[in-house]
Design a protein that fits this description.
mainly alpha, elongated, single chain, 535 residues, disordered C terminus, 0% strand, 78% helix
Length: 535
Amino acid sequence: MKLLYRIVGLIIFLSFSSILSCCTSKEKGYWALPDKELKQLDNAIKETPKYSAAADATADSLKRLIDMKGIDLERKFFLLHELTSFYRPRMADSSLVYAHKIYDLALKSGNRTKLNRGLLAIADAQSASGFFSAALLTYDSVSVKGESRDDHLNYWYIGRQLYSNLCSYVGEGNRLYDEYKRKEDLCRDSLIANLPEDNVLTRLLVAQIYLEQGKYKKAQDILQVNLDKVEIGDQIYGMTMFELALSWKHEDQTKYAKYLSLAAISDIKGGISDGFALPTLADWLYKEKSYQKAFQYINYAIGDANKGNARMRLVMIASYVPNIDEAYRDEISSSLADYILYAALTSAILIILVIILALLLREMKRRRQAHTHLASLSKMKDEYIRDFISLCSAYAEKYDSLSRTVVRKITAGQSQELLKIIKTGKASENENEDFYRTIDHAFLTLYPNFIQNINQLLEEDQRFDVEKNSDTLNPELRIYAFVRLGLTESAKIAKILNYSANTVYSYRNRMRNKAIDREKFDENVMKLDESEDGE
């Protein structure tokens, strides 16, 4: 029998070793995946509807304020700018709609500053929507000469975003890229020179310069400060995480992927649809040969960009999709071939196991017959004990009845009739005690370890003294001796032991209160192993 088990174990081990070898033989990427952050990203993707609803609620709140009756012009301008800025990274087309409303309202006011702000809002929304030619024309038509410092900052900020998008659109290595990059740098330098040093945008822009110079540690130090100043879901938080990821790209790509994941999580929680973190992460996963994850994320990014009409993001994603899609389909085809191999191996294993199972069943049948015989003997033993105890109980009850009869006859002065009754048998006040000793002796002879075993079911400080109860059982143990034999009804136990039903219930409840598992104590007593009892 042991030889059969060893053969089965060897076959299963060799089979699974073969399957595992097939699985691990697939080529994997060099860098470890940031599993914790990827799991958080998956959870964020699942909860996208919740975050989208929160963003919609914010937009709706701004719209209600704009549509309020009696709102003054300045307040309305401010709220329209807020709504346009809110929509820009989330719904580019909606941002353009409200930017035009700003411009229309500015035309009615005839205020030059408001007109410039309206045009800049339109240029910003056009840039976000991917209408770059129109955005350039609109932006170039604006002059902020003589305007306030805030208007200049807004002009440079929108210009930097526009030229940055254009650089991404045309790609490096051509004259247009060089021109747009020069203008982006001019706007960035102007922002840095005029913004406070402790501003989150200032730190982000300075970190970008350090990254371009290859000073990654300096960039990381500055970006870490930013993370303490902004909350996840904020656009600046996602941008900071993205730049932090770039700072690790040349040193530790697991950290690179980790920070890309956190940037993508922030974008999802903030409802941002124009972020580059998720498609960039999908491209990295593709290069690390984690094709299923790459395919999942790039598809989500496409859907998210389409929903927000983020055309610039769609252009970027389009360059990643063919490679990821092809690799994922190749992996599916490879997996199908693996499944066929696994099926063949499994079939072979099953055939061998069926043969071995037939041998095992024959052996088990022989053992089951032996076990059945032993169980039959055990059942006979229990039945014998119950019959013996019932007989003793009946004997005790008979004498108890006789004692009551004696009392009644003496009281009635029927001594002659009593004499006749007494001559038929002998009554004694010690009959019950003798009966209990008989029960205890019989039970402890058959189950010498009963007290030790039941102690294992009780709290340590509630256990019985084995030496003290070595010859006789106290009432609690005596009652549970019957439970061990399968007699669970308190009324029947009370009748056998000549106790009241309440007394039996009280003792049983007291024992349960001492138990480790109070709810299953009676069940556990009945399950006490017979071999343990008889050892």
